[in-house]
């Protein structure tokens, strides 16, 4: 899918000036299985939107074991490691298979975010989608047996 088409159809961008800003600053990045998109405690300098593939977010528990916090499967899913731009990540995000993302430098958006209602709407939608998916994942992890979680994941 072409990047402009992705922004229009998947992320719902209709404002041509915003589309132009996004297009000027976007790039496609492919992560191989096991590569980290974002590391815990690092400042995420880019926003990632899933184009194809699969990623998971995880953190380490008190004993150093990985605890899966979320998954990204659907095109357009933002790989958000925290709710605030340019803040340290609370989780690590890892590609679970070959994964293509659309990368957008946070510094390119940040100056416009609070002054442009269309861009703010897109950012709020990104946060909402991420939060909704996070809670769906959390409920499945807590309420389902291992087999039910596997079937839900598939």
TrEMBL record:
PROSITE patterns: CNMP_BINDING_3. InterPro entries: cNMP-bd_dom, cNMP-bd_dom_sf, RmlC-like_jellyroll. It holds the Pfam family cNMP_binding. Transmembrane segments: none annotated. Residues 10-53 form the Cyclic nucleotide-binding domain. Gene3D superfamilies: Jelly Rolls. CDD domains: CAP_ED. This is Cyclic nucleotide-binding domain-containing protein.
């Amino acid at each position: 899918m072409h990047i402009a088409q992705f922004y229009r159809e998947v992320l719902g961008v209709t404002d041509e000036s915003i589309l132009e800003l996004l297009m000027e600053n976007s790039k496609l990045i492919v992560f191989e299985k096991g590569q980290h998109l974002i590391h815990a405690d690092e400042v995420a300098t880019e926003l990632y939107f899933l184009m194809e593939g699969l990623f998971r977010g995880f953190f380490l528990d008190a004993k150093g074991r990985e605890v899966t916090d979320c998954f990204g499967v659907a095109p357009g899913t933002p790989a958000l490691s925290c709710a605030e731009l340019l803040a340290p990540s609370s989780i690590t995000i890892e590609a679970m298979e070959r994964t293509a993302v659309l990368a957008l430098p946070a510094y390119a958006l940040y100056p416009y975010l609070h002054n442009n209602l269309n861009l703010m709407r897109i950012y709020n939608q990104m946060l909402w989608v991420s939060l909704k998916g996070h809670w769906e994942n959390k409920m499945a992890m807590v309420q389902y047996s291992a087999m039910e979680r596997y079937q839900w994941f598939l």
